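2024-03-11 09:14:02 DEBUG pipeline.ingest accepted 1 chain
2024-03-11 09:14:02 DEBUG pipeline.ingest length=73
2024-03-11 09:14:03 DEBUG pipeline.predict start
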Amino acid sequence: MIVSVAATEQTPAARKPLRRLGVKLVALVVAKILVLTLIWWIAIAPHPRPDASPRAIEQLLAPAHASSHGGSP
């Protein structure tokens, strides 16, 4: 089997731009994840979590008491 010299020389040269592109894409994805995490810690994390206990949900969804209407309509 005869392998040309040109074919073997192009393979390493063609891999360098692809490797550089891969590194840039991975760096871009990591940077976006870091930015989104930073936004989450600044904008969302400081807010208190709502009470999601069953008792709180029951109280929230319970119908209003008859005395709170103030009498007959």
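2024-03-11 09:14:41 DEBUG pipeline.report The longest helix spans residues 5-43.
2024-03-11 09:14:41 DEBUG pipeline.predict end
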